[in-house]
Amino acid sequence: LKSSRTNLMPVLEPPVDLTRFPITHGFWIDESTNQSYPGFYDLFDGHHPGVDFNLPEGTPIKSALPGIVVRSEFHIGMGSTLAIRLGNIYHLYAHLKVFYVDLGQIVRSQQPIAYSGNTGQATTRPHLHFELRDLRETDLKKMVFRPEFGQPLDRYQPEFIYHINNENQPKTYNSLALRYFGSEKFAAFLHAHNPLLADYKPTDILPHGEKLIIPSP
User: Fold this and answer.
1) Mean pLDDT rounded to a whole number for the chain
2) CA gap 24, 159 in Å, rounded
3) Per 3-state DSSP, what percentage of the chain is helix, strand, and coil (rounded to 5)?
4) How many whole angstroms separate alpha carbon 174 and alpha carbon 197?
């Protein structure tokens, strides 16, 4: 990714045409008393963790940043969901209908990645839910931050440190390659960027609490 190898901050581009589809549900709006979504935003203290664009099903969605596809799945609340990682920045697209891209695929900014839909439980009408997360944070509600379209991402870093946490699930190079690159085929690439943990094979459990460098591809 060219932009991840320079000192320039990447610019956040809108995933849809803002003149046609402006933001209709803003970041961090208090939803704690909204009976339409009981408990859905509990992890965010009852607040909306992204922004929404109301648009018809089948609207083309573009990537707001370059990156590598790390999530392509169905989530019970967010429906068909894509997530793309650029350095420490994770950009997420929810309630989609059809995906254009695959796990482990590198995409450019403004590349078409999906069609919008009306999937998942947390929706009463077709819309796109968009989130930004800073992967340097460990608390999910601290990860999310307000998108500022057309502005450089001052939080961006081409690589960041992950502190290995085996409490809920043992971590290996394979499992972390899947999480941060979308495919286990990047395990060797991740291994090569961590010489202090060179003795560990792709399937070995990595030491709890140790620091692991997560680079950009």
Assistant:
1) 91
2) 33
3) 15, 30, 55
4) 14
Averaged pLDDT, 145-174: 97
In this structure, which amino acid lies at residue 73?
Answer: E
Q: Does pTM surpass 0.85? A: yes
- How far is Cα 158 from Cα 2, in angstroms, rounded to an integer? 10
Q: Quick check: 134 and 146 in contact, CB under 8 A? A: no
Output the pLDDT for position 124: 75
Angstrom distance (rounded) from CA 50 to CA 146: 7
Q: How far is CA 72 from the centre of its chain?
A: 10
Find where tokens 């339409």 sit. Answer: 36
Q: Are 89 and 124 in contact (CB under 8 A)?
A: no
Q: Who has greater pLDDT, 82 or 77?
A: 82
Phi, psi (rounded to 5 degrees) for 40: -70, -30
pLDDT number for residue 47: 76
Half-sphere exposure in the Cβ direction for 91 (13 Å, CA): 32
**CB burial string 26-60: b at 16+ within 10 A, e below:** ebbeebeeeeebeebbeebebebbbbbbebebebe
* Average confidence (pLDDT) over 25-39: 70
